[in-house]
Amino acid sequence: MKIHKEKVIIIGSGAAGYTAAIYAARANLNPLIIEGIQPGGQLTITTDVENYPGYADVVQGPWMMEQMRSQAIKVGTRIINDVVVKVNFTMEEKTVFLDSEKSLIADTIIVATGAQAKWLGIESENKYNGKGVSACATCDGFFYRNKEVAVVGGGNTAVEEALYLSNICSKVFLIHRRDELRSEKILQDRLFSKKNIDIVWNNVVSEILGDENGVTSLKLTSTKENKSEVIKVEGVFIAIGHSPSTKPFKDVLEMDNEGYIIAQKPGTTITNIDGVFAAGDCVDKVYRQAVTAAGMGCMAALDAEKWIQNRNL
Asked: Catalytic pick from 140, 281, 284, 303?
């Protein structure tokens, strides 16, 4: 019995995955998207989006991803709701194994599985997610102009977020559980020179407080003494890192020590496996924006199309 083989399988359905699908479909590659555990990606848990080009007014993240999905389908993309649990890219035909116990094979694969922000894991964090709780200052900082906010973390990301917000907000609290930062020295020097940034050492956020309008304050608990305090803020940015969603590709695709897929040539989406491409936040740990993910999705589709053409597939 002849097994049907796809030309292009796209794993993941965020901005990178949908854009890759749009370009692949318009190139008559008949792409198949495997949606994954969070169809639409991180933007489906983002409320207001104001920095994606093409929209004069603020749009809602879930709506924007639904529009991308509809566009991908309209130009010829097929989508299945399933999760990739394992892959076999050692053979010429790439095989993906699904949670439904099915398996698919393809000439080319585009990995666009994204990354997930690490959260504190407290109940109130989820309650106010999108209502004052964010994991991206570049995405949401604009909504807190001239307001007081907090950043949680002590690494490069946290310091960079605090510095960015200091140019927008009236005051920024940087809350860190230790008594020294893990960030680069040059970033620390910039941080310490900012007059509207207050560092709260040796404290953790034990509860996020708010009302029907969103966050109003944070309850902080000392890591050294048995005491707590409450500080008034209207927004809190969790900056304790991201985890790329690349577990199914471990020991198959080349990754860095944090699990991000490594592009083999700068300016491309080529991985260490011939015919496998990667795009979006599973590769990019620097920018992590919807627009850059979409750009990489376009690149991956063009790279895959060229790969197929060169092999007369």
From this structure: 140
CA angle 245, 54, 215 (to 5 degrees): 60
Report in angstroms the alpha-carbon separations of 29 from 68, 81, 88, 269, 289: 18, 20, 22, 18, 27
CB–CB of 9/288 below 8 Å?
Answer: no
- Report which of 88, 101, 77 is spatially closest to residue 9, judged by C-alpha positions: 77
pLDDT score, position 3: 62
Give 103's strand partners.
97
Catalytic entry in 136, 169, 281, 303:
136
pLDDT at 1: 42
Question: Which of the following is catalytic: 82, 139, 281, 303?
Answer: 139
Distance CA 23, CA 237 (A): 34
**140 among known catalytic residues:** yes
Query: pLDDT averaged over consecutive 10-residue blocks of the chain (313 residues)?
Result: 81 97 98 94 81 92 95 98 94 90 96 93 92 90 96 93 96 97 94 97 97 96 95 96 94 96 95 97 92 97 96 77
Q: How far apart are CA 36 and CA 312, in angstroms?
A: 30
Instruction: Judge whether 234 and 147 are in contact, CB under 8 Å.
Output: yes
* C-alpha torsion angle, residues 104, 110, 115, 116 (rounded to 10): -40
> Length of the chain, please?
313
pTM of the model: 0.81
